[in-house]
Structure formats: structure tokens, C-alpha cells
Amino acid sequence: MDDPEGAELTAFRRADALLLLPFVWQLGLAPWANGILWRPLGLPFPMVWQMAGIMFATFVLALRYWLDRKP
Known about the structure:
Blueprint: H1 21-28, H2 30-34, H3 45-69
């Protein structure tokens, strides 16, 4: 099947690897975060870790968007 006119094929770029970082944060470091007993602001540390992960993922997506928009 041919590609529609005007569609371009894009290769995996190094900037695309940034999108793996939030997954590493949430899945790869979860066992470590679950072992922490510290309770900042009275919240369990894994909950704070997840909230920080949301902020981290937002930053990574914004950075990826900015890199994609650069000419």
C-alpha cells in the first residue's frame, strides 16, 4: 500500500527517547519509592512520588514538544 500524498515517514529520533523517561520514573523506580517510609506533608511517599511523576512527565512532554517545534 502506498502512503497518502504528503505523508512523510519519520524515523525514531533521539528526542523521542525522552518519552521513555516518564515510564522509567513510574515503573522502574516504583519499587524503590514503595520502600521509603518518609511521609512528607503527612502523605505516603509513594503518593508524593506519583504526583512528582506527573509534574516530571508534563515537563518531558513540554520539552519534547519544544524540540519538535524547533526548525
